[in-house]
Description:
Elements: E1 3-9, H1 13-21, H2 37-47, E2 49-55, H3 67-87, E3 92-97, H4 103-116, E4 121-125, E5 127-128, E6 131-132, H5 139-147, E7 151-155, H6 176-190, H7 193-196, E8 201-204, H8 211-227, H9 237-241, E9 245-247, H10 256-260, E10 269-270, H11 280-296, H12 304-316
Parallel strand pairs: 1-2, 2-3, 3-4, 4-7, 7-8, 8-9, 9-10
Antiparallel strand pairs: 5-6
Amino acid sequence: MRVIDVHSHVITDRYYSYIEKNHALLEDSMRLPQWSLEEMIEFMDQAGIAWTMLSLSSPHPYYPQNAREGIRVCREINEYCAFLKEKYPDRIGFQAVLPLPDVEAAIAEAEYAFDHLNANGVKLATNSRGQYLGDPELEPLFAELNSRKTVINIHPHRPEPLNQTVFTARVIPMFEFLCDTTRAVLNMIANGIIERYPDIKIIVPHCGAFLPNIADRAEGVLPFMYQLQLLEQEIRVKKQLKVLYYDTAGNPFPDLLPLLCRIAAPDHIMYGSDYPFTPAGACCQSLERLKRFLDEEPELKPWKEYILCKNAETLFGV
């Protein structure tokens, strides 16, 4: 069965050196893994992945003391990914990285990525040095992305500030990434981004983070806050969550994928490997387990081919 991976990462030497220069190799509490094109292709062949969507993970390449260099790094990453897509058009796509929180530079980079590099979409960090998705300053960028019917992968980032004395500051991906994804999506919902820009398609990673867990609570609390005039408008969280797309990166079974299906229709769920942050061997094992899990779940079995392939084919036109 054809498999499409919508959550795979690229790590270039230039990006690595920029992160190292800014003393941020351990910003997410874990060192960046090694990556090469040859090893990625080998992994794809081993796992049976026909096409992969490359994007940048975390740390986000923007540091105020070296902001101009960060803008250049984003351009170089995007141009390298465009080269890979041109070299392997049937196997590789990419979503451009934007140099937020500089909104003007981000818009310029998005225009360049679409008009000259044939990007498949953009990747946005949940927060860019404290500027969260849903921030009013991002309105011009979202208007531009909406006009282009953009597919966005959001990816968690270290929240700012983060108390260094708490345990979760030492294992950022385990907990803080899920919190930050949840925080960013709720912020977009609360600020009307999803309703105001309906032509943008947003992919939420890691089985929706904590969104499936708190959807009922949010659905109950927010209308009550509106009745108390603590919110300017009534917000229906579950309605907006159903508009979003989700990937299975992480450990989706036996609990997370069924939980995700409480807020998302199966035609909005897609496979994600999280390679190379998840090593190749673990990715292959996880993918095989996912296939078996989809075969064994009566409600999901009819959707197996869609989750592994067809939903992504439809969304990205591949």
